[in-house]
Amino acid sequence: MAKFLFTMLPANDLGLPTRLVPIARALADRGHEVAVFNPAPAPSKLIAEAGLQNLPLPSRPMPAPVMDLVQVGSAWDVEEFFAAVYLDEESTRGETAVYVDLIRDYAPDVVVDSFGLLTCLAARVLGVPLVTVLQGNIHPASDGFLWWKKDRPSGLPSAAAVINKVAAEYGSAPVERCADLFAGNFSLILGTPETDPLPASANVQYVGPIVWQRQEARLPEWVDALGRDKPLIWVYSGNPRYANAPTPIDSIVVIRAAIEALGDMPVHVVLTTGYQGLPDEVGALPPNFTHAAYLPGLAMAERCDLMVHHGGHGSVMTGLQAGTPAVIVPTITERESNARRLVALGAGEVVMPVTRADGEKAVDAVEFGAAVNRVLKDAAYRHSAKRVSESMRRYAGAKDAADRVEQFAASISR
Questions:
Q1: CA 406 to each of CA 19, 274, 276: distance values in angstroms, whole numbers, following the listed order
Q2: Distance (Å, rounded) from C-alpha 243 to C-alpha 153?
Q3: Domain encompassing residue 350
Q4: Residue 214 belongs to some domain of the structure
């Protein structure tokens, strides 16, 4: 039996753990020793729900992040994204040391990572084999988040100089781009060549959608009690607020748009926030809304007539796997990338928010409501989503990913 450590960028969102937890659970069920690391509150709940070990922070203190959230939200690609996240050399050095301690102390045979740049660096420093689980627009061979604009501008910032300076202190070879760390020994790509296209030269294996849901998970009775007399819209915002004060990447804009446009429509609305509380500023919900912090995603996507969300890759995969169309309000360029891929497949529409003078994002309620009505009434959107769902059935998802990780671990132990 092998020993696996699953790591990720420790953001307080469910997107990354949702893709890794099913693989980790499958390997644990086969008798392997498995641990996960994400100390953020919402991911910790998901990891606990799966019955997996979530490693505590090492004794070394984790430095406070220093980042430019405006640049995070508008990044052209992974390279510019991490230039905004790892601005400060000292905090980058301190965070890397925490991850080096984590991996050294747990001593896994293989690290399996998704979007954790410094955990990938720590695995490289320690010479621990690395498998990455990525959406297409994060892989180093991709065209980035703004892929439809074709030509990447020259002179965009990169954190490679900071990363390489820290790497050199451990005697590790430099990388040309930060994104190169995500190549690992090999990469598993979530989705399909249709949803997450990459060039044939990329060293990747597609595994299809991976969405966490307990095998015995059921929707609560109150969802069924809503009846089918009206369309059911599932609004998923993810984390409404990432801090005590507003930030440019907050998803509360999704909730506000839904309340303003759907509150008077003849629809049932279920609002979930991914193990996050509903901010007090939202106030009382309209009578046709019901809020739950968390519901099993795939079951909810299969039950609803339309999904409304922020464009996270996991949300896109959940809807497409269920064959349910979407209206997306993307809050950052990475999510706009996912939204535009879905629109190109004919499975929904995107409504772009604008940034107000106070820095908050807002959506034109009339435009948003019109998009919702179009997608609900035009069967072509659902037909397209169903077609993509059927094409995804050729892939085994978490089982295939677990098989490939397991086979890789066996190959390096010989």
A1: 17, 30, 33
A2: 31
A3: 221-392
A4: no
Long-range CB contact pairs, 281-284, < 8 A, 24+: 281/252, 282/240, 282/252, 282/255, 282/256
Q: Which helix (DSSP H) or strand (DSSP E) does residue 17 occupy?
A: helix 15-29
Q: Token pair of 325, please?
A: 């169309």
231 and 147 in a common domain: no
Q: Taking residues 325-347, what's their average pLDDT?
A: 97
Q: How far apart are CA 134 and CA 123, in angstroms?
A: 17
Tell me how crowded residue 410 is: count the other CB atoms within 10 A of its CB: 11
pLDDT digit string (tens) for 366-406? 999 999 999 999 999 999 999 999 999 999 999 999 999 99
d(CA 267, CA 269): 6
pLDDT at 30 over 90: yes
Label residue 269 exposed, middle or buried (CB < 10 Å: 0-12, 13-18, 19+): buried
Give the separation between CA 147 and CA 135, rounded to whole angstroms: 14
Residue 116 lies in a domain: yes
Q: What is the pLDDT of residue 248?
A: 84
Q: Which residues pair with 327 in a beta bridge?
A: 308, 349
Any idea which residue has 């050729």 for tokens? 394
Query: For residue 392, what are the CA distances in angstroms to 24, 134, 139, 342?
Result: 21, 17, 20, 14
What is the rounded distance in angstroms from the CA atom of residue 204 to the CA atom of residue 185? 10
CATH number of the domain at 146, please.
3.40.50.2000
Q: What are phi and psi of 51, to 5 degrees?
A: 70, 30
pLDDT, tens digit (0-9, with 9 covering 90-100), for 225-249: 998 999 999 999 999 998 887 888 8
The answer to whether residue 414 scores a pLDDT higher than 70 is: no
| Residue 337 forms part of a structural domain | yes
Q: Answer yes or no: do 198 and 334 share one domain.
A: no
216 inside domain? no
pLDDT in tens, 245-291: 788 889 999 999 999 999 999 999 999 999 998 998 999 999 999 99
